[in-house]
Amino acid sequence: MELGRALAQARKLMERTVRPGETVVDATAGNGHDTLFLAELTGPEGRVLAFDIQQAALNATRTRLGKLAERAELILDSHDRVADYTEGVVGGAMFNLGFLPNTGDRTVVTKPDTTVRAVHALLGLLKKGGLITVCVYDGHEGGDLERDALIAYASRLRESDVDVARYELINQKGHPPFLVTFEKKKEFSKPELLD
């Protein structure tokens, strides 16, 4: 696989997994880039559930979607409530952790507990072979705690249920984002955790 930025890798993997007509989730709508990508990927028969806790993010997402806005449901709620909005099977989900870019406000950030609960819920909703991609940005205040909580959770998943991988560039300065992926290997409603 060609090396590249975390988000580019996430999109390449989603292109291999998600099929037209499926329901997918953008767990962190932000400025709408992933929502638009997913709306294009699933096509006119697909459905994108885009979550954010900031109305400004959903407004930006709606603007970015333009004519494709009818393919997405923009949800002003925490991503850990995904099961409340989902009917049926989910083909895939994308997360970009951290704060809303280009706003200057770095106080509203994704949180360890809600992120882990959202991933856990989505694993139960995913189709067999479905994928969750999580771009982890850990250079902001609290980002290290969220990173550690996600990795600790991922490490406790049974390998017979889920393949978890971490993709990162190791020769970059600062805190470059890295990608964690969760691929569902078999049918289950809730993943089992190791003790």
From TrEMBL:
It comes from the Bacteria. InterPro entries: MnmM_MeTrfase (IPR010719), SAM-dependent_MTases_sf (IPR029063). GO terms for molecular function: methyltransferase activity. The keyword Transferase applies. The keyword Methyltransferase applies. Keywords: Methyltransferase, Transferase. GO terms for biological process: methylation. This is Putative rRNA methylase. It comes from Bhargavaea ginsengi.
